[in-house]
Amino acid sequence: MGKLFAVVVTVITVVSTAIFITHTWWLPVDISAHGHAIDHQLSETMLSSGVLFVLSQLALAVFAWRYGDRKDGRQVKTFPGGATPMVVLAAILVGAEILTLTFVGSKVWAGIYQTPPDPNSLNIDVQAEQFAFYFRYAGADGKFGAVHPELINEANENFFGLDPAHDTTARDDIVVPSLVIPVNRPILLTLRAKDVNHAFYVPELRIQQDFVPGLVIPLHFTATQTGKHEIVCTQLCGLGHYNMRAYVEVLPQAQFDQWLKEKAAQQ
Amino acid sequence: MRTAYIAVFAMMALGTSVTTVRVAPSAAGTVSGKVTYTGTPPKMKPIDMAKEPNCAKEHAAAPVLTENVVTGPGNSLRWVVVYVSAGDEGSTPGTEPVRLDQKGCQYIPHVLVVQQDQPLDIYNDDPHAHNIHPLAKVNPEWNRSQPAGAPPIHTKWEKPEFIPVKCNVHPWMHGWHIVVATSHYAVTGEDGQFSLKGLPPGKYTLTAWQEQFGTLSQDVTITGTETKAVNFVFKATPY
What we know:
The structure holds two protein chains of two kinds.
Chain A: H1 2-21, H2 35-67, H3 83-113, E1 122-129, E2 132-137, E3 174-176, E4 179-182, E5 186-193, E6 198-202, E7 207-211, E8 217-222, E9 227-232, E10 245-251, H4 253-266
Parallel strand pairs in A: 1-5, 4-10
Antiparallel strand pairs in A: 1-2, 2-3, 5-8, 6-7, 9-10
Chain B: H1 2-18, E1 29-39, H2 53-58, E2 70-72, E3 76-78, E4 81-86, E5 98-103, E6 106-108, E7 111-115, E8 120-124, E9 130-134, E10 144-146, E11 153-155, E12 161-167, E13 174-180, E14 185-187, E15 193-199, E16 202-210, E17 214-222, E18 227-229, E19 232-236
Parallel strand pairs in B: 1-18, 1-19, 5-8, 7-13
Antiparallel strand pairs in B: 1-15, 2-3, 4-14, 4-16, 5-6, 8-11, 9-10, 9-12, 12-13, 16-17
């Protein structure tokens, strides 16, 4: 039985490791300027935890193979000092590994999320609500109209609560349900939530950020490849959470300008 | 005395000029007219349904426009409810079920008028779920999911109320359930025309309601089987 267990453990270890090494189920394509840092960090995490995983599983298999079928019930050897020092040592080793990964990972995270945005960024406002995302561009005047939550009215598509009757800067604001951005241009999103927590997650952009009602959260990135990808909400936000999604479309600058012009004409 | 004769003659002449040849089967009059606007109405904006690919595909050729203010030729206003708000006579209870469809991520009709206690059947004709949420305040508010292929929701409203209705999964879906206490009501079409038939003689207050511009009222007196012309003109603002 011990030998069979050893074989099964070895097979599981080899197959699951092979799936990672051959990238059978791997991350989607990275279309962001910062994504390589995340992918690199993830690879390092996978490598260090993967090596420990393989070593520990193979050790388990070796011990099971060698000692699993002993009938005399004699202990092979005891850990020096008994069980307590063994548990303490294991906790220190595993703790040190997790803390190291946390520190290294936080540095990568902070390098993306805690850095100031490019001053030439294209600013886009994002409103999350049950169960949709809306995006706002400043329009011809380059200024965003102020938001008044009490004026939010879905019937006339006033998703942000603008006051065009009194606020002239709000009149040309362009509000759309899809995020369209130019390629290779820094983008600064400003995230707001109307009701509950939501999240902005685009795996291809290597971006995931929560929306929190009452907070105005900046989020910046640069897309380096054109294409269309899904934006999904990854905070369970209610009954229709499954259907809370939008698309991000990355266009060449000229096509983006054309798109923005068309949308501006519809406002 | 002579003045009185002239006045009577003038009234008779006026009556003749506004009475059409149409005579209601019962001894009842009709009020008909047109709802228009002055000023600049808001733009009807195309609705981007990218979030729901089925609907985006269905409307790819001609995007659906916002319906909060729908205008037509000759400054006509669509989706205006004209109803007898006071002095109602001869109303009959609504027994025929009224049908609301959710199709192509739209409420059809956008403005649905139903009498209190009249059966209301709500269908989902789309290949995906909708979540119908009437934001009632006088009646009990409810919020129900209706997956694709689900049976119709059979319901009714017990008290008169103007109820905005939204879909929780498609924020652009917006409609109205107008619950009235009278059977004398009409909703204007693209030409802004309406007609209320079968009004027994009496004095009525007619109210026209438009979801963004509010209400306008006029009094009208029906004396016999005549057709009275009543027009409503809303003041429109672009925002």
